[in-house]
Design goal:
This protein has helices spanning about 1-25, 35-40, 55-75, 75-85, 90-110, 110-120, 120-130, 130-140, 145-175, 180-230, 235-240, 290-295, 300-330, 335-360, 365-385, 390-405, 410-415, 420-445, 455-460, 465-475. It is mainly α. It starts with a helix and ends in a 10-residue tail after the last helix.
């Protein structure tokens, strides 16, 4: 009797667990007969025996949240200089100081955000960071200059928590088979949300003033905060587990064999190499500094860090100088607006293509191609600075390459960093991004008056090592994803 009762309790617990999984991910009941074959692939299962994909609810909710946050808080940075000049009657240098504080604050708290994501969880860190939207609203409700500087700094710091928490949630909750395309949608979601929100923000300011805009942002931010805390599932509870399809050709995984990915003749994988046959084991590092030190001691991560820093230096130069140089050559603001629209449209399409290629043919190929094209784009721009058509085309090409590179970092962190250290890795990469943007814009502004081609020539020379980094990472990541079940 006791044994039967125990079996019954185990069966009841198993059914309860499966029911919760179906409720969390929107799993149709007709999957029930096949759950034994695919119950470990939680996020999505296009290769499921029944042929019906499971709904990846958590990534979808995250993408919706990113879009909404972009629509509510994104326009604040663009409107802030207008508010400072029109309402407070302060010089542009004060607006520049506010924007620098927002950017630098985000980088300063990125490390803390990464450590919190690893220790407390991705969702908690992201939801805590959402309070930056309320502080962004406070920027337009504050009129005292010193207080405004303090609010801008705190808003930037808290935004660092949100940026890293959201990226860590993306990596944890998305299946490996769709992480590339989901990363592309993640980055595009914020941009699209900001573009749409800017239209509404302009109308609100035009009719009610900046105070009304700040109040609307505060109310919308509170709604987003409550929705995220209540609706978004915890990433660690629903994080997909990677499983391997038995293809009868042996295991293929990144190993210490020079990147071929084949394990034979007794070859052993590298000690820190994650295997696609199972999730990367969680980190056992508890002290915050020790975790960052371990990351910086790994060659794989240093390559990813270099690929984050050097191309962003070029992007900092291009972001500052491309509109200015196009205006000097054409004398038309319309030409600058046309360039912005065309370059963003092309870059968005290339991001989606990069994500698809990454999921379909592996992480290494887009890394190799884009790391090689980046110095070419910078050098081409340096040659074309005195031709309107040439500069326009080179700028669009460089924007597409730079944007496409950013799609690769969540998948690279997923593949090359242990589960308990991914938040820290994303935090370090964000710090490098902020530092490179500041360096690129500062150096570009200083060099352009000497020679318009000089900033891009320096960026091209600086990015020559990215091609070598791309080759090494390609060898490290050369494994066919089609031999593994999505996970």
């Amino acid at each position: 009797m006791t044994g039967r009762r125990g079996d019954g309790l185990d069966h009841e617990r198993r059914e309860t667990s499966e029911r919760r999984e179906r409720e969390t991910w929107g799993l149709p009941q007709r999957h029930k007969e096949h759950e034994g074959a695919c119950d470990r692939v939680i996020s999505s299962c296009p290769s499921c025996l029944c042929g019906e994909p499971r709904a990846p609810v958590a990534p979808s909710l995250l993408l919706a949240l990113v879009f909404a946050v972009g629509a509510v808080g994104g326009p604040a940075r663009g409107l802030l200089p207008v508010y400072v000049e029109s309402e407070l009657r302060l010089p542009p240098s004060f607006s520049s100081a506010l924007l620098v504080l927002l950017l630098a604050g985000s980088g300063a708290f990125a490390l803390l955000g990464g450590a919190l994501a690893d220790r407390l969880g991705e969702k908690r860190t992201m939801v805590a960071g959402l309070t930056w939207v309320l502080l962004a609203a406070a920027l337009f409700l504050t009129r005292e200059p010193r207080a405004l500087l303090v609010v801008a700094l705190v808003a930037g710091l808290i935004d660092g928590l949100h940026v890293i928490g959201a990226q860590a949630y993306l990596v944890a909750a998305t299946a490996r088979s769709s992480l590339g395309i989901t990363s592309a949608l993640f980055f595009l979601g914020g941009t699209a949300g900001t573009a749409l929100g800017s239209l509404g923000a302009g109308l609100i300011v035009e009719r009610g003033g900046f105070g009304a805009y700040g109040s609307v942002v505060a109310l919308a931010g509170l709604a987003l905060l409550g929705a995220a805390a209540r609706v978004l599932p915890d990433a660690r509870r629903v994080s997909p587990v990677d499983v391997r399809r038995d293809v009868g050709r042996g295991d293929r995984a990144p190993s210490g064999d020079g990147g071929t990915g084949r394990r034979g003749d007794g070859a052993k994988p590298a000690p820190d190499a994650p295997s696609p046959t199972r999730p990367v084991p969680p980190s056992t590092t508890s002290p915050q500094g020790h975790g960052f030190t371990r990351l910086l001691a790994r060659r794989d991560f240093l390559l990813v860090a270099g690929l984050r820093f050097l191309p962003t230096c070029y992007w900092g130069v291009a972001t500052l100088l491309m509109p200015l140089l196009l205006y000097r050559l054409s004398g038309s603001v319309v030409m600058v607006s046309l360039y912005s629209a065309v370059s963003l449209a092309v870059a968005a399409s290339c991001q989606l293509l990069t994500g698809r290629v990454s999921d379909r043919w592996g992480r290494g190929w887009p890394v190799l191609a884009l790391a090689t094209l980046l110095p070419v784009a910078a050098f081409t721009t340096a040659l074309a600075v005195r031709s309107l058509v040439g500069l326009f085309a080179a700028g669009v090409f460089g924007t597409a390459v730079a944007w496409s590179i950013s799609v690769n970092f969540p998948p690279l962190v997923r593949e090359l960093v242990g589960e308990g250290e991914r938040g820290r890795a994303l935090g370090l990469l964000h710090v490098l991004w902020v530092a490179a943007m500041l360096l690129g814009t500062t150096a570009g502004g200083a060099l352009v008056e000497r020679d318009p081609a000089a900033p891009f020539a320096v960026a091209a020379a600086l990015n020559l090592p990215t091609a070598a980094m791309g080759v090494v990472l390609w060898r490290r990541l050369r494994v066919s994803p089609r031999e593994y079940l999505p996970g």
